[in-house]
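Quick one - inputs below.
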Amino acid sequence: MMSETDDRALIAACRAGRSDAFGALVQRYQSRLYPTALRLTGRPEDALDLLQDAFLRAFEKLGGFHGESSFYTWLYRITVNLALSERRRKSSRIVPRVASDAGPEPEDRSIDHEPSSSLERAELDRAVQSALDALAPDHRAVIVMKEFDGLRYEEIAALLDVPVGTVRSRLHRARHDLRERLRSLSDSADVDDRVDEAPAESRLAAAAPPPARVV
Amino acid sequence: MNLDDESLLSAYHDDELAPEERRSLDLALEANPALGDRLREFTELRTLLGSTSTPTSPVDLAPAVVAELRVRRRRSAAFRGALWTATAATVLTAVVLSADPNLFRPKRNAGPIVADRGEPVTKHERSADDRNADPAVETPASLPLVAENSDAATEPTAIVAAPPPPEPEPEIAPAEKLASLLDRSRFRVVEIPESLFGDAAADRVDEILRETIRKDPDYARFRLDAPEAADLGLESASECFVALVDENELHHLVDELQRRFPEVEDRSLESPDVPRLVAAADDVAIRPGRSGASLVEPPAPVEAIASKFSPLDPAREIPRFPPLGRPEIGAFSPPRIPSVEASPPAADPIEPVAPPRKVALIVRVSEE
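Output:
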């Protein structure tokens, strides 16, 4: 079981020049950070790139980590801010990505061997990720931090270095946008009679693939 | 309900309202069923998002991260070993100049260039077709045809009847030469305290300098004795590194340094008289960058360049770059010279030879 004491020992070893100690920290926190990275970037390969950059950046800045927060929180902050700066950098050429067969694969699920509920969930994952991808980077970040990672407004504000009121308004707008995008996916899926009889969540998940991705 | 109210509803849903705000919303919800519908939408959205699966990382990043760290460490150690480690770093000063980008390259000091067949060359002729016709020919931007201070630089096209007699080039002390090159410049000075060279910041500082050198700009090295160093706000004699860097690039680098390291001070407003300080410098060595390097010495890899910036040791002779010589006129291909008749009339506007407005100078000062 990981503990802050272990973290401190590993960090001290890193500062003493032991790269392998940092490898242990990477192994410890990669799995916790990966879902956030994936939801922020939308693609597994981008998520891995982001995480690798975040870990390297963290190592560079290790001298500036004084333990005011947990190491995980510090890493989380670096990851989110790196994702945001990267998204902003690319924003001029970003067109909302939509679900397609080539879209993100949240989990490696074999259709042949998974029950239909898993298939539906994979479709839901895809639809939700598509809707997330279409949000503005700032809005996506607050949604991910609130709805998936369960952070409080104050924590989000501290991580993004913005006032709590900004978090509240961004979150509200993000929810509104997300809801609208999911609803539009749902509406297009209503053409399919099968989907009409499915529960609401499945309807959203089983949305027909929107227009082809334009990059 | 306006947006503010709706964001309150969103905060209500997240249990992020103050008690009195929450009570107000409770009353509003009782009175307005539509608000309840909106609230249910938030709940449904949360349920929907919560029903997605939690992705798992497909690969273990640790080996790649550790390998990359080791590579960076080796690179950093090799570079610092050659360039920085042996000297106790105290300050990095960045100066932005408004000057010719070819500052450190040899310049002709007088008169228009004359082709080897003895015909006169006008600025207009050189600046248009011929530059394009023979890319090997030095362009006015890299080798000004007329010295910056020459009156001819502002004159209309001049047809010269005969080649001017070669002027003897006076011997100029390197420090004076460098000082004159830096004259008529304006400066931006950024100081990085010694403490930043002691931890992870050093890697970034090294990285910046390495990137700077790798781009092979014009650069020079000189040494300031204590009195001049004191004018830079330093306590001891110092070795300085001067490089011409793109201004925007320098701006971003300095901006990044200042953002990451609040200790970095922008001393632009109190910039010392750098040319005067340089005029008093010792051990000046000037080396043009890639485009001018062939005139002086072959391009060297970054490690070789770095090795030239060896720590100052009073008992050791500091390596000098070969002295800059005046380029032989015949060393480069003469351009195709159009006939005088074919030349445009003198009244035609001269195509301006516009040097880039600003270049950057990085002075790295290290404690002796």
